[in-house]
Inverse folding.
């Protein structure tokens, strides 16, 4: 969801998004979801 | 402002939701554990430890049935808003703008700029994949979490069957059981209602300062 903005905007400085700390948060989310799904699938398959 | 302060401020949206996700999951685990043990005691069975509950099919199915519906919601919404229009909604493109857009509009291939992601510049299969990566990833996460719901729900269902003196059923049979579809559809209906109401309420209602809303003074028939 989200309101579209006219044009693409200019960002807020080189490397301010898409790299460094932002990528760390992206990785935390991705890891949580992937590990979580793997864990829950394993629980079901292992008949816990 | 310190480096840490800038980091928190610049990423507060994803950080706050990460924290409240973990807090809600912890609360769900604690409440679900007590509910599970209440159910055990009502059957004159001993309760289980929190660690045992966290590795149970019950915890898995109750978590993944909600995950799958959230990922489905975003998969459908991202895909539907390519082609479907809601006149006057801040969530919609303007009528006439339906479709995937030209390469120039999307800054692909020869139209890419120096700061475009590499996969938007290179063309071919990589650009085709990257052009649809948001829907692809959310779609995969939906299918994976729906699959996780199905296997953990199946194990939990069979536990109940055994407790009631009935035989276990196969996974394929479980997919035809009301338990599977009740868990699935009770989550889907709430997501579809929330998404549809968001799309239409955004025509007439405003939230000052939110990118999810039109400016407060924008006319009701202004789309996008």
């Amino acid at each position: 969801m989200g309101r579209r903005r006219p044009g693409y905007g200019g960002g807020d400085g080189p490397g301010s998004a898409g790299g460094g700390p932002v990528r760390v948060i992206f990785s935390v989310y991705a890891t949580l979801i992937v590990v979580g799904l793997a864990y829950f699938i394993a629980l079901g398959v292992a008949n816990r | 402002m310190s480096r840490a302060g800038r980091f928190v401020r610049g990423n507060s949206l994803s950080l706050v939701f990460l924290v409240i996700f973990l807090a809600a999951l912890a609360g769900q685990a604690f409440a679900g554990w007590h509910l599970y043990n209440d159910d055990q005691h009502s059957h004159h069975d001993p309760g289980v430890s929190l660690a045992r509950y966290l590795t149970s099919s019950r915890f898995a199915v109750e978590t993944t049935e909600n995950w799958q519906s959230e990922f489905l919601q975003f998969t459908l919404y991202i895909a539907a808003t390519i082609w479907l229009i809601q006149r006057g909604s801040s969530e919609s493109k303007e009528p006439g703008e339906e479709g995937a857009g030209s390469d120039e509009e999307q800054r692909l291939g020869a139209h890419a700029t120096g700061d475009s992601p590499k996969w938007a510049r290179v063309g071919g299969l990589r650009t085709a994949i990257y052009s649809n990566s948001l829907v692809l990833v959310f779609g995969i996460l939906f299918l994976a979490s729906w699959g996780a719901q199905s296997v953990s729900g199946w194990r939990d269902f069979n536990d109940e069957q055994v407790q009631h003196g009935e035989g276990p059923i196969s996974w394929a049979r479980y997919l035809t059981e009301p338990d599977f579809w009740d868990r699935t559809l009770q989550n889907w209906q709430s997501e579809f209602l929330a998404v549809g109401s968001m799309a239409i309420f955004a025509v007439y209602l405003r939230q000052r300062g939110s990118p999810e809303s039109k400016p407060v003074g924008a006319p009701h028939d202004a789309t996008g």
In short: The mean pLDDT of chain A is 75. The CA atoms of residues 8 and 17 of chain A lie 14 Å apart. The radius of gyration of chain A is 18 Å.
